[in-house]
Structures are given as C-alpha cells and as structure tokens.
Amino acid sequence: xxxxxxxxxxxxxxxxxxxxxxxxxxxxxxxxxxxxxxxxxxxxxxxxxxxxxxxxxxxxxxxxxxxxxxxxxxxxxxxxxxxxxxxxxxxxxxxxxxxxxxxxxxxxxxxxxxxxxxxxxxxxxxxxxxxxxxxxxxxxxx
Length: 142
Prior knowledge:
The protein has four helices and two strands. The chain is mostly helical. A two-stranded antiparallel ribbon has the order 1-2. It is rod-shaped.
C-alpha cells in the first residue's frame, strides 16, 4: 500500500513552466505614446479647421439670404419711388393740395436771364479745385 500512495504524490508534484512575455522597454513605450499624442493633436487641428470652415459657410449663407431680402426690398422701394415720381401722379397730387397752373400773365420773365446763367456758371467754376494729379474736382465730386 505504501507504493501506491507514493506514486500518487509524485503525480501531484509536476511543475509548470510559465513563460513571461518580455515587456517593452521604456524608450519604446515613450515613442509610442509620443506618436499617439502627435496623431491626436493633428486630428484635433484638422477637426477644428473643418469646424471653422463650416461656421464660415453658415455665416456666408445667412449673409447671402440677408442680401437677397434687401435686394427684394430695394426693388420694391424703387418701384414705389417710380410710381410716386410719375408726372401724371404729381400733377394730381398738386391739384389735391390746391396748386394751380399759372396763367401766362402770371409768369414773369427775366431779361437778364442770360446774365444770370453766366453768373451761375462762373460761381460753379469758382468751386472747382485742382488736385495734385491735375484733375479738376467740384464740391459735388469726392
């Protein structure tokens, strides 16, 4: 009986050999960490630039919509100005306000009209100035 118990004990004493994988050296770990950090920074910059481009495009679209609205409003206002500036309408409005067309004997003619016109031209010439480039500019022109 003694022999059987010894054989059983021997079977239990088998040793297992565990092989450990070699760990990475510290320099290699730092190199991988640095590479991953660079990739994250570059990806972040690219995403940030795309976000800026998207925001600018959204601003451009909103400004274009505002321009379209203002152009439509301007065309409507131009039509109103044209409608209000018609001579026929102005005559009707003048009549509503009590204006009448003058009779021929109510109109005074100025005999010195030609002299007044030449004085007016002389006055307008006095407002002209010469610039450094030699171009004449009047008060009306910038």
